[in-house]
Structures are given as C-alpha cells and as structure tokens.
Task: structure prediction
Amino acid sequence: MGLAEQLWQANQDLAIACLDHPFVRGIGDGSLSRQKFANYVGQDAFFLEAFARAYSIAAAKAPDWESFGVFHTLANGVLQELELHGSYAANWGVSLANVEPGSATRHYTDFLIATAWSQEVGMITVAMLPCMRLYAYLGQMLAQPRIPSHQYADWIRTYSGTEFAPLVKQLAELADRYATNNPQIQATYRYAMQCELNFFQAAWVSKD
Result:
C-alpha cells in the first residue's frame, strides 16, 4: 500500500464526516438550496484559483521533467473545473470576480499557498491530495446506484467521471514518489482533510 492510500485510510473518519455532511447529502439528493450551492460555487472558484497556483509552484520545484509535466497536467484539470464553476455562475447569476472569501476558504487557501512556497514537492502533494481524493470519493458515492437527474447532476458527474479519476491517481503517484511517511506528513494531510470538512460546514451555514 502506497503512502497516498495509507493516509487516505488513516483519515476515513473525516472522509465519512464529509460524505454524511448535510451540505454534501443535499447535493446528492438534490435538496440543497440553490443559494447555498451558488455561494459554494463562488467560494470554491476562489479556492480552485489558489489550488492551480499551488500546482504551478510545485511544478517549478519539480526535481525532474516528468513531474514538471504532470503538475502542469493537473493544473489544467483545475482550469477545467473552473470552467464548470463558470457555467454554474453564469446560470445562477453569481459574479465570480466579486467573490469575497470566507474564513474557512481563506484558512484553506492560505495553508495551501504557504505550503507550496515553503515546502518541497513531497509535502506539497500531500497538502493537495486530500481535496482530489475526497472529491473523487464523494462523486463516486453520490453516483450510486446511478447519477441522478436533478440540478446537481453535473457536479456528481464531474467528480465521479472517468476524466477526474486519472488526475487523482497522478497526484497520488507523485505523493508516493516524493513524500515520506512521518508525523509532519500525517499532520499536513489531516489538516487539509479538516479544511475540507470546514469548507462544507461554512457552505451549509451560508445565507439562503
């Protein structure tokens, strides 16, 4: 079992807490209010911009050309996610240019960017991996037994789909290659997972 899988298994409590969170369940069954989802889209777009920047910083630090290319492929995947958010924003009247990040969003993005600038590639991948692995998990679980036909079907389709899974695998392979299991690695991964749960909670308590 590689490091990425070890860390994922060690943090199943937080993964399940995210899956069971009322915000995520509301996406799954379509009952989430449109305003809460619209607010989430704005916050997540802000987050994804920071995520893409962190990939670019990691690429600059990559110790070999192959990894440099993988990081740029992953950054392009984030740009595709942002296109999805842009379509949501256009449909629901959300101005992504005017998004003010909430405290949960800012804590997460500040952590990612600080890690990207201050740490080596292994630690950066570990800080970024929870987001990717968790969203693939959530998408796959919410797609069971089939992708629903409600207003959030595209979200579920994106994260359960065959285009997202290879990106998760690529990042996991980078973590396996460049990170070494130690208390700091474990703490970094868990902090990012907790940030994910906090992000959903902030989205849930946002104004309708």
Remarks:
- The chain has a mean pLDDT of 93.
- The chain has one domain: 3-93+100-204.
